[in-house]
Prior knowledge:
By secondary structure, this protein is α+β, with helices and mostly antiparallel strands. It contains four helices and 25 strands.
Amino acid sequence: xxxxxxxKLALARLSSVLLALAALTASPLAAQERPTAVRVDxxxxxxxxxxxxxxxxxxxxxxxxxxxxxxxxxxxxxxEVGDRVHEGDILALIDEDRLIxxxxxxxxxxxxxxxxxxxxxxxxxxxxxxxxxxxxxxxSAAFSPxxxxxxxLEIEIILARLARAEAQHIESLADLALAGQxxxxxRVVAPFAGVVSRKYVNVGGYVxxxxxxxxxxxxxxxxxxxxxxxxxxxxxxxxxxVNGLLAGGEAVEARLRAVVPDENPLTRTLAMxxxxxxxxxxxxxxxxxxxxxxxxxxxxxxxxxxxxDAVLRRGMGDVVFVAxxxxxxxxxxxxxxxxxxxxxxxxxxxxxxxxxxxxxxRLRPEQPISYDVPETTGRADTETDAS
Length: 387
């Protein structure tokens, strides 16, 4: 045991003598008192793993600028910084009138190409009918080989014009599709739900393709990013649960989602991403906010623990009131590390003992108490009363 633990034990033994004297003087008075109602909690064994605090930060899984997909003047901009939007909401409208006209022009060209195809097909049908009449005259004196050859050449010319008209029609349909896509892209929509973090343009401003219009942060899907020493990082497995503290002291829970396999050569750390449990977040959190993550550094072992609410600071040591025989017994304890809302018990308590966690601030040694026994103790009795 360390020198610090030896000192704690020595102080605990000294305090025990003083507390015993106080208990003897308090006993006659306690016998005349009515029992005080208190709440108790059992001393119990819990799994414990030593941890080290690592400073991390909240990062948004989805965060970025929403860019313009067409160039033009901004006609409307219906959001302000701080507005919450849903996926698919229209954020801005870019020069829709010009794009509507372009789409109508492309549609007209497509219709013209269709009409040209119909005309060329009619010409082709007529030429083929005339060639058929010439072919029927082949055995007569009126047959002209030159006229038949000319008609074959005319048909070839019509077929070429028809192919060109069909190509123009395909091109016009592509232009129409692009014009329709540009018209749809004139509406700048939210690619994901989130909060508007920045406005880059105003109504009347001109934007080019790819220029940012607004910034967007999905604050509903935040992760914890922390740079963890390589030795500790490699000991964790995907899905491992960790606890964290927000900047305001609020406790949160998370699970390891991924380890980035790129070690920082200066700090010898690995970036780790922890999926934050939204059910444990009780307030508004922001991307970039500091989070302290408790990273396990040792194997899990079973330790004896006591509720933090049971521990009182008396003199130079820690004490608790143990519920025993209907009265409050003052007990010196030596405590170790914290385990969530409990302390590791080094000395002074046994597994299953009941300690006072509510009403203990005003108790005196040997004072009569009444309490309900928690079901987790497994005891047969349900209540202890000093009366």
